[in-house]
Target: Flagellar biosynthesis protein
Amino acid sequence: MNDPIRVGQLYPAKIPPGASRSQTASAAGRDSFQSVLGEQLLKFSGHASKRLEQRGIELNSEQLRKIGSAIDKAAAKGSKESLLLMQDMALIVNVRNRTVVTAVDGGSMKDNVFTQIDSAVIVS
Model:
């Protein structure tokens, strides 16, 4: 009953010449994780973060989920730069990078012109 437990690979991975198994596994895991994370993650540019802070805009998890969904819809239509109108704020988003470029509160939206966008999504 004192047999050692051995853990082995069921399917050996092909390793490029000169690379160790740990380097290959680490790189493969990091690349796939980063690509999946990059596709799902919502990012804020430095400018957008500054505007959110200056204008006292705080986004809760439900709002972030809705923004992500709106970006998905814009991407499905081929949008590149989109205006998201949400409650009492507007966000300009780079759809491909899933990055909020700037944010405007309701008071600042009046008499404002949004340029360099190719779509608008109304988020309810």
